[in-house]
Prior knowledge:
Strand order of the largest sheet: 2-1-3-10-4-11
Order of helices and strands: HEHEHEHHEEHEHEHEHEEHHEH
Distance between the termini: 77 Å
Oligomer: single chain
CATH class of the largest domain: Alpha Beta
Structural class: alpha/beta
Number of strands: 11
Number of helices: 12
CATH architecture of the largest domain: 3-Layer(aba) Sandwich
Largest sheet: 6 strands, mixed
Number of domains: 2
CATH superfamily of the largest domain: Bordetella uptake gene, domain 1
CATH topology of the largest domain: D-Maltodextrin-Binding Protein, domain 2
Amino acid sequence: MSNTKRIFLSAIAGAAATFIAIGSASAQSAGGYPNKPIRFVVGFSAGNSIDSVARIIAQHITNKTGQAVVVDNKTGANGMLAASDVAKAAPDGYTILISNSSTITVNPSLYKKMAYDVKKDFAPVSLMVSVPFILTVNPQNDPFGTAPNLKAMLDLAKAKPGAYSYGSAGVGNLTQLSYELLNGMAGVKMTHVAYRGTAPAQVAVLAKEVDSTFDNPSSVPKIKAGQLRALAVTSAQRWHELPDVPTIAEAGYPGFDISFWVGALAPSGTPAPVVKTLSDLIATAVQDPEVKAKLMQQGNIRMLAPAQFETQIDSETKQYADIIRKANITLD
Length: 332
């Protein structure tokens, strides 16, 4: 065999070996995942809607793969402790943050110092569930509670700047940002009263301490019982539990779209095949009627792939930063 032919065959063999090695590594990083337990880190207490979604998806992945998915509740600082924990974890797909939207898209504009940087420290995996807020009033609280629709209610507020109030689940909470966006679009001024959560704000509306609030879907039973009136929902689509209640966009304020969501994020640097595998596993939840029904109890199912989820995060972060700046909302 000539030297030229020997060199040529050697080069082909080397290239083939390299190709096989790359293919093997790729298969291992994607096809072999998961091959050990996964930890879902949730920044909120057990029983919370974020925790509920995490546990539904965790059980689904366990059933699909045979690998345990453990939910670890690491509460504190509006989810920031959990986010900090995951940001420092090994980027191998086995430590995943299950977060609400506030921790990812609102906190960066509220806090000057944070232990994580969303863009640098996380790889979006999947948005899973999206939940609207419901603008509620007390039907016994005249004239605000008896206004025939959202525009009529806001006309009352416009006629008497600062005379009417709204409750929120806390300074900088999405319930406050939703109202500030609505106030800006409608050209009204209402007095903000902050509470420690949506439940106390709901009690305040029932007690006529405030005139309105953006409540969460836990208010639906009281709405159906007539204790509260729902004038609109904040999402782009109507809420399936209240099909007759219009969206704020439908009620006369086009473009209004704010929802609370639950999503999964991995540490930055997690291999793209692993991120895709996990995202695909999560998305298969909608193929199981029982799992799908459980998720629908938590909100609107919105399975977004990594690139779509990243676009959503970027868009919301800019939107909330603008609302916070215009309303001059500060926490530190």
